[in-house]
């Protein structure tokens, strides 16, 4: 989340617009619309090839891709319903937090960290609706960096190496950001024509321009593409926005999926995976207070997210045996489910500055609503976010270890509500609110991208409707905290750059009782421990290498996979949504290959090459089959047939798998 703090804390423009929100929504109901997938009418006890639990970022993409296979039947269950209109209009993203479409998770208080947050707990919003957290996130497009995926590959195999994941990032992407699209050097790493639009322009808010100048003065290079793997610096993110509307895996993929093979059940709360003799055979769910059983002939796939996926596994007997036994749950597989929880670690630094520092050239009035309704332009259609990436040391200059995300908050902003949503306690919010009556506030989120600390998710009880217990584990490794004095001082140094100096910017040290009378570095550490919060990118609770294998299959259980943020063995250096889509895209291909179906959905068992059918081909069901090998090794192909067919496919067969070439061979 670190990106969208402007709106999180209530920017002037959004605040000014609030008064006309009622009329605006009335108008938008007609003018901004989306036909969401319909609820299927399903018989209790029905059978499907695949059952996917959770229609979030991963589940929406995966269901759409699997439904490309005409003879796969797919059931997708989602605990929430249709997203509200605020999930479409970019500037209204903040209104979804702490709402009925948010699971409203929180961490468990530990009396050590986050004591300056309300009740000592970290807020953990997560989307409970079609599109999941992808329907309420801030739409920042990031991928992580090659070194992240070198780590994954060393843990889970070459499927997850940078070269391969890049192919999948590009597959889903339709890059239109004008800072990138006209630059061939950058476009080497981007896709055109994929389902999800990644957009942007250089027309950014006044304050973002000033921050970019400030970071340049501080020695940061300004970069046009925050995903460029070969150099890092300060720059604006691209966003998943199409024509002024959120473009998520729900809108871009699920909404366009093949409706004949795909069945969707909304407001259906999955309570358990049915596992018999070591095989997942179905799920139990509750919809409208009625219990349903659905059966999977091939696989059950969990895409319920970092907190609910481990919960469901544990409720079903897959998890740490000691914890499960303590709750009286029969252990089906003893796996470290729920451990390895980690997230980007965020501490806010504050400056105040003269009025006019943040001045935006966006009109702060209801003209913005009219503009939006007229042609989807203006403030409401946008999400401006920037960051400055810093390496740990000059020996790895292209590997960011930290990020600074600045935000400028105009005077008299409706700051309090955003502050409380962020989780700061009443006293801090009041102090900052009072300052904002006199000054403009600059917040800089200082973020550690690769924390060593780990937390865990556990069951609260055996009641499936109870939220899981989230032990954030933040700063459980002291060395994570050690980075913050340097980071916070770097954030403060923005006050010493030309523009901000001219606006009398100065550092504010919020009052945290436990930290009084300390020297500066000690104060920063103390304050960081007290104010630290999640950056809302939690991952790792059903990690590759320990809970699932490199094909995302749950170890020791047949017919069960996990496809969502929880499989990340280590968090990537960036926001997590696009990587989760990438995981779903790879999972879809792994599944298609496993069941001998081409990546575009053709069943390879029905394929013919001349008079050669799939069943007469050796090894046709092997996932890594190469057509060149098949033809080479098959005596039944006569030479004239080889001539004809190879003319069609020769350029492809030397390098690609059979599953890539179905457009060029004769398929039934
Ligand atoms: C406030 C916020 C802002 C963010 N901003 C950004 C950003 O700008 N850019 C970025 O890259 N990342 C961002 N992220 C992170 C990113 O959105 C997530 O990492 C990503 O959406 C996770 O996808 P997922 O598929 O793992 O889980 P989700 O998208 O959360 O999907 C899980 C789905 O499963 C459903 N579900 C759960 N349990 C059950 C059950 N028992 N039965 C049925 N259904 C169930 C849920 O309702 C949900 O729809 C943000 C996250 C947050 C919280």
Automatic annotation (TrEMBL):
Q: Where does FAD bind?
A: 133, 137-140, 270, 536-537
Cited Gene3D superfamilies: FAD/NAD(P)-binding domain (3.50.50.60), Glucose Oxidase, domain 3 (3.30.560.10)
Glucose-methanol-choline oxidoreductase N-terminal domain sequence ranges: 127-150, 305-319
The GO terms this record gives for MF are: flavin adenine dinucleotide binding; oxidoreductase activity, acting on CH-OH group of donors
Query: What residue intervals traverse the membrane?
Result: none
| Cofactor(s), names only, from the UniProt record | FAD
- Note the superkingdom of the native organism: Eukaryota
Task: Cite the entry's keywords alphabetically.
Answer: FAD, Flavoprotein
Do you know which InterPro entries this protein is assigned to?
Answer: FAD/NAD-bd_sf, GMC_OxRdtase, GMC_OxRdtase_N, GMC_OxRtase_C
Family to which this protein belongs: Belongs to the GMC oxidoreductase family.
Q: What is this protein called?
A: Ecdysone oxidase
């Amino acid at each position: 989340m670190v990106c969208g703090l402007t709106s999180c804390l209530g920017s002037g423009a959004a605040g000014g617009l609030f008064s006309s929100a009622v009329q605006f929504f009335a108008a938008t109901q007609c003018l901004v619309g989306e036909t969401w997938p319909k609820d299927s009418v399903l018989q209790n006890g029905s059978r499907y090839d695949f059952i996917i639990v959770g229609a979030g970022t991963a589940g929406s993409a995966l269901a759409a891709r699997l439904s490309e296979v005409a003879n796969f039947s797919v059931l997708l269950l989602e605990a929430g319903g249709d997203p509200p209109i605020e999930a479409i209009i970019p500037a209204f993203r903040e209104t979804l937090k702490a709402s009925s479409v948010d699971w409203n998770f929180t961490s468990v208080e530990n009396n050590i960290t986050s004591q300056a947050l309300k009740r000592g707990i970290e807020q953990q919003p997560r989307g409970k609706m079609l599109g999941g957290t992808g329907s309420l996130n801030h739409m920042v497009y990031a991928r992580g960096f090659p070194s992240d995926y070198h780590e994954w590959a060393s843990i889970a195999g070459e499927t997850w190496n940078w070269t391969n994941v890049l192919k999948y990032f590009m597959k889903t992407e339709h890059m239109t950001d004008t800072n990138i699209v006209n630059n061939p050097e950058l476009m080497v790493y981007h896709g055109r024509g994929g389902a999800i639009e990644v957009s942007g322009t250089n027309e950014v808010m006044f304050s973002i321009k000033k921050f970019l100048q400030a970071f340049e003065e501080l020695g940061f290079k300004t970069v046009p593409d925050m995903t460029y793997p070969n150099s890092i610096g300060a720059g604006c993110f691209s966003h998943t926005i199409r024509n002024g509307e959120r473009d998520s895996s729900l809108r871009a993929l699920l909404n366009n999926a093949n409706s004949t093979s795909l069945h969707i059940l909304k407001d259906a709360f999955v309570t358990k995976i049915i596992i018999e003799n070591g095989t997942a055979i179905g799920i139990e769910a509750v919809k409208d207070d009625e219990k349903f059983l659905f059966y999977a002939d091939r696989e059950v796939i969990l895409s319920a997210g970092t907190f609910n996926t481990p919960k469901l596994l544990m409720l079903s007997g897959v998890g740490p045996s000691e914890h499960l036994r303590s709750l009286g749950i029969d252990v089906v597989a003893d796996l470290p489910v729920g451990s390895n929880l980690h997230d980007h670690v965020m501490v806010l630094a504050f400056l105040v500055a003269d009025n006019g520092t943040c001045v935006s050239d966006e009109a702060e009035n209801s003209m913005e609503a009219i503009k939006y309704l007229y042609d989807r332009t203006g403030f409401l259609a946008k999400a401006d976010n920037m960051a400055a990436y810093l390496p740990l040391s000059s020996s790895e200059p292209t590997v960011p270890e930290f990020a600074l995300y600045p935000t400028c908050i105009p005077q008299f902003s409706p700051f309090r509500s955003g502050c409380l949503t962020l989780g700061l306690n009443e006293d801090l919010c009041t102090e900052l609110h009072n300052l904002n009556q006199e000054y403009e506030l600059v917040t800089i989120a200082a973020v550690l991208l690769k924390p060593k600390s780990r937390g865990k998710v556990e069951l609260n009880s055996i009641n499936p409707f109870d939220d899981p217990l989230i032990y954030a584990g933040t700063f459980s490794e002291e060395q994570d905290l050690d980075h913050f004095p340097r980071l916070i001082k770097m954030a403060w140094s923005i006050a010493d750059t030309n523009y901000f100096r001219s606006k009398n910017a100065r550092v504010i040290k919020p009052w945290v009782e436990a930290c009084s009378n300390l020297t500066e570095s000690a104060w920063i550490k103390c304050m960081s421990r007290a104010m630290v919060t999640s950056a809302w990118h939690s991952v790792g609770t059903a990690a590759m290498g320990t809970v699932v294998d490199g094909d995302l299959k749950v170890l020791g259980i047949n017919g069960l996979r996990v496809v969502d943020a929880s499989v990340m063995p280590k968090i990537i250096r960036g926001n997590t949504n696009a990587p989760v889509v990438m995981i779903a895209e790879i999972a879809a291909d792994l599944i298609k290959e496993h069941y001998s179906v081409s990546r575009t959905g053709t069943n390879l068992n029905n394929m013919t090459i001349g008079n050669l059918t799939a069943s007469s081909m050796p090894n046709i069901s092997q996932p890594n089959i190469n057509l060149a090998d098949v033809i080479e090794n098959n005596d039944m192909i006569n030479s004239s047939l080889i001539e004809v067919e190879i003319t069609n496919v020769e350029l492809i067969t030397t390098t690609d798998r059979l599953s890539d070439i179905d457009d060029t061979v004769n398929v039934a």
